[in-house]
Design brief:
By secondary structure, the protein is an alpha+beta fold. The chain starts with a strand and ends in a 23-residue tail after the last strand. A 3-stranded mixed β-sheet has the order 1-3-2, with no helix packed on it. It has one domain. About 10% of the residues lie in helices and about 20% in strands.
Amino acid sequence: MRLAYSDDGPGSAVILLHGFPLSRVMWEKQVAGIGSIYRVIAPDLRGHGDSLHPKASIPWTRWRMM
């Protein structure tokens, strides 16, 4: 499983996790704001953004997730 992430800035690490069904792109303004002070790590969780999705025997649809 390959997860995409951004890793920017010096200092202590701050990890930003996105919600469903978003991606790390939602954190761009926060990364720009604190990235000069903190090391900001923002992953795309499995199946979101640029991360690969797990293989499933039954295809995922929006109806299955409700």
